[in-house]
Amino acid sequence: MWEELAKAFCLMLVLEGIIPFLNPGRWRGLVATMATVSDRQLRIMGLASMLVGAGLLYFIK
After folding, report:
1. How many domains is the chain partitioned into structurally?
2. Is this prediction's pTM over 0.90?
3. How far is it, in rounded angstroms, from Cα 60 to Cα 51?
4. pLDDT tens-digit readout, 6-47
């Protein structure tokens, strides 16, 4: 189980690094925009992301 968790973490880092590598200017703008979003909106986006990820894992498995 720990090996699979480590692989998933590594894959997440690879995927997270694609956008700043390909288009750093746009990524910088996105980060600046995210700084202006309220905490409530960020929490809702985080919850939605977790639910979509969990749902996809459920359907894949």
Report:
1. 1
2. no
3. 14
4. 999 999 999 999 999 999 999 999 999 999 999 999 999 999
